[in-house]
C-alpha cells in the first residue's frame, strides 16, 4: 500500500519532530493537538529547523518549501483520521491517554489505517487491545531530536501482522531512518537502558557524588557518550523520563524505582528544556548555565 496521508497526534517534543520528518519524506502530514499554542510552536519549529537545514546544506530551498507545504496543523483529530493511512501517536506517556487516542482513532479511521505509537515503554499488545484491528497496531519509536537521530525501533505486539511491520519499516525508511525490530518487552531496547542510566545519574546528583556538569562531563569524555545523562534528561523532558521509569518500575521491578530527586524536580515544574529549567537553566536564550 502506498502512504499518502499521515496523522501525528500530539505536537510536543516528539510529535513536532515526527511531523517534520514525515512532511520532508513527502507525506501529506497533519499534526494534531488539543493546544493551539503547541501547534503554532510546532509549525514555527518546522520553519526554523528547515532554515537551519538550508544553512547547513542539508536541505535545499525547494525541499524546505515542499516540507512546509506538506505540513498541516489541526485541532480536529476525527477529521484528520478520516483520510489517514498511518497514525503516529505521540501524546504523553500515560496509559489512559493512549487508550483514549486508540479508541477515538478506531472510531474514525478507515479500515486500512495502520496505528503506530511512539510510546517509549508501553506494550503494543496492550495498545492494540484498545482498537478493533490489533494486527494493524505496532510501536514506531523515534528518538529525540527526531530530524537528527537515525533510528526507529519497531516493536510488534502479539497480533501485529508482518504486513504492518513492513508498512512501518517502509514509512520509516522513506523518512530516512534505519530500523530495528524488537520483541515486546517493557522499555524495548533503548528506553530500558536509557532510563536506568538517567536514573543512576539522578541518584548520584542527589548523593552529592559530583556536580551535574561533572557527572555529564565524566560520562561524555570518559565513556564516550555524545551527551551526558543529565543533559539528555533535560532534552527528553524530566516528566517523560519519570513516566518511563514509573512504567518500568511497575513492570520490571525495583531497580527502576525513580530517584526521589527526579520526582521532586517534576513536582516543581522543572521539566527540562521545554519548561526553561530542569537540571540546568535554559532561560538565558537557551544557553546552558549552571543550576
Ligand atoms: N521526549 C522524548 O525524548 C521521547 C523520546 C521517544 C519517545 N517519547 C514518547 O513520545 C510520547 C510523547 O512524548 P513527548 O516528550 O513528545 O511529550 P510532550 O509532553 O512534549 O508532548 C505531548 C503533546 O501531547 C499533547 N496532548 C496532551 N494530551 C493530548 C490529547 N488528549 N490529544 C492530543 N494531544 C495531546 C500535549 O498538548 C503536548 O503537545 C510519549 O509517549 C513519550 O514516551 C518521548
From TrEMBL:
Protein name, as recorded: 3-hydroxybutyryl-CoA dehydrogenase
All residue ranges annotated as the 3-hydroxyacyl-CoA dehydrogenase C-terminal domain in the record: 187-282
Site (Important for catalytic activity): 141
Binding site for NAD(+): 10-15, 33, 93, 98, 120, 144, 274
Residues of the 3-hydroxyacyl-CoA dehydrogenase NAD binding domain: 5-184
Its EC number(s): 1.1.1.157
Enzyme class: oxidoreductase
Keyword NAD part of the UniProt annotation: yes
Pfam family, one: 3HCDH
Pathway: Lipid metabolism; butanoate metabolism
